[in-house]
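[worker-b] picked up task from shared queue
[worker-b] task type: protein-ligand structure
[worker-b] ligand name resolved to NAP; SMILES cross-checked against name lookup, match
[worker-b] sequence length check passed
[worker-b] input payload:
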Amino acid sequence: MTELRLALGTIPLGTTVEERDSFRILDRFVELGGTRVDTADNYPFWQDGCTGDESEATIGRWLAARRNRDAVVLSTKVGARPRTPGDRTLDDVEGLSASAIRSAAEGSLRRLQTDRVDVFWAHVEDRSVPLEETVTAFGALVADGTVRVLGASNHAMWRLERARRIARDLGVAPFTHVQLRHTYLQPRPGVALPEGGHTLATGETFDYLAAEGDLTLWAYNTLMFGAYTRPDKPLQRIFEHPGTTARLAVLNEVADELGVSANQVVLAWLVAHGVVPIVGATRVEQVEEAVAGARLSLDAAVVDRLDAPA
Ligand SMILES: NC(=O)c1ccc[n+]([C@@H]2O[C@H](COP(=O)([O-])OP(=O)(O)OC[C@H]3O[C@@H](n4cnc5c(N)ncnc54)[C@H](OP(=O)(O)O)[C@@H]3O)[C@@H](O)[C@H]2O)c1
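[worker-b] inference finished, payload out:
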């Protein structure tokens, strides 16, 4: 089986999706060839009665029950956990100091019931800490085997470039993964996203990725919470502009021609552009649809047609 370019998003696992169903979702993903499981040390802290431990702890119990740690590419993040339990905002988070990074890594390992993380991300920027300190602390985790590779999520490209140069100068492992919000529809330029902390991939992101060659983009919110296919999930207002009408027309045309869902065309289009899409599934059928989409190969002419409307 060829490598499946897809990551399973896990925000609701163990909370809105109860544990037994969460295990089924994880089982099915792995059964279908999935490896990448994306979580964070704060999912879902913003929900009633939650601390932010829940997603990682659920995955940890699943890994322990299935004894399949080696079959999974475990991806988790540090930096955006509120320092005060019960705080539902991102106003006072752990951040990216050396001590915050080290202690968050320890917490994640404990909850995930593992001795290593495969992809460890800076979840959001922390400009209050010298970048040298952050880069050194992340590099140390790679050097001691706690972490395999590093990623930067929700970072401006200039900060990523600067962090990578510092890592080179210091001789430590650099960020090689980028996680940003990206899907087929394009929000109106300059629009404020309703979700705090979210940062969009832009033309500059792709320019930088193409120039560097050693960076992989993982995209989140790829299915826009289900809005491509579900009337109960209205399109967000950030997409209100004529380009959306044109993109949706081509998307639905291609989906009809290929006999697949619009979600699947979106995921196949992302993969065709070298992206690893993350999909947050809350049912086994959603996992199956996403896996088939990520495995769908689009002809170059179809990709060009999808690219054309802006
Ligand atoms: N780095 C970051 O800052 C960041 C930010 C956000 C997310 N993420 C990662 O990305 C993952 C996904 O993010 P997301 O939840 O914002 O985006 P998403 O994947 O676009 O949306 C997930 C939701 O879409 C619906 N859905 C999934 N598959 C579907 C299908 N085949 N048909 C119809 N609806 C479907 C489900 O809604 P229902 O549950 O209502 O069925 C699901 O909860 C997260 O779990 C997390 O791992 C990272």
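[worker-b] attaching auto-annotations
[worker-b] The pocket of NAP is lined by residues 9-11, 38, 153-154, 179, 197-198, 220-226, 229-230, 263, 278-282, 286, 289-290 (CB under 6 Å).
[worker-b] releasing lock
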